[in-house]
Amino acid sequence: MRRVLVGVACCCAAIQVQAQVLSPQEGLNWLQRIAGAARQLNYAGTFVYQHGDTVETSRIVHLVEPTGEIEKLETLDGPRREVLRTNDVVVTYHPDTKALRVDRRQPGRSFPQLLPDQLSTITDHYEMRRGELERVAGFEAQSLMLVPRDGLRYGHKFWADTATGLLLKAKVVDERAHAMELFAFTQLQIGGHISRDLLKSGMPMPPPLPAVQPLPDAQTDSGWIIRDQPAGFRKIMDVRRARAGVQGAMLTHIVLSDGLAAISIFIEPVSVRARGVPEGRLIQQGPIHIFMRVVGDQRVTVLGETPAHTVVQIANSLVPKGR
Amino acid sequence: MVERERISAFMDGELGDDEVDGQVRRLKSDEHAADWATYHLIGDVLRGERTQLSAGFTGRFSAALAQEPTVLAPPAAVPRKRNLQWYAMSAAASVAGIAVVGWLAFLQQPVGSDGTAGTGGGSSVAAVAQAGPEMGEYLRVHQEVSPTAAMHGVASYIRTVTTQESIDGR
Question: Widest CA span of chain A, in angstroms?
Answer without folding.
Answer: 71
